[in-house]
Input
Amino acid sequence: MEQPEEPADRPPVTPQRRRGRTAALVAVAAVLGVVAGTCAGYLVQADREPTELPPLSQPVLPQAKGGAPEPLSADEDRRVKTDGDLRKLLIKKPRGAKEADWPMGGDG
Output
């Protein structure tokens, strides 16, 4: 059997390239880079003398000399406003609100 000839107005058919060559090449290069880096690091460390590790705890610090600073006055201390029950600072009691039926805690 004879194959039919292609019409002249069509370009010749080119074979499709296989996909995935670039991804495989990049993956192989990454694996080789990791293996080569591991080997080089091992060879560098193998030639070195072992060194003593630093202690894990901090050294003992000397006690500070002199007296403690004076406590701040109520005008200077910002925490005085926020100590204790914050409900008065946060919201106003709505009109028509009634006292709760259950006892409130000591710290609000």
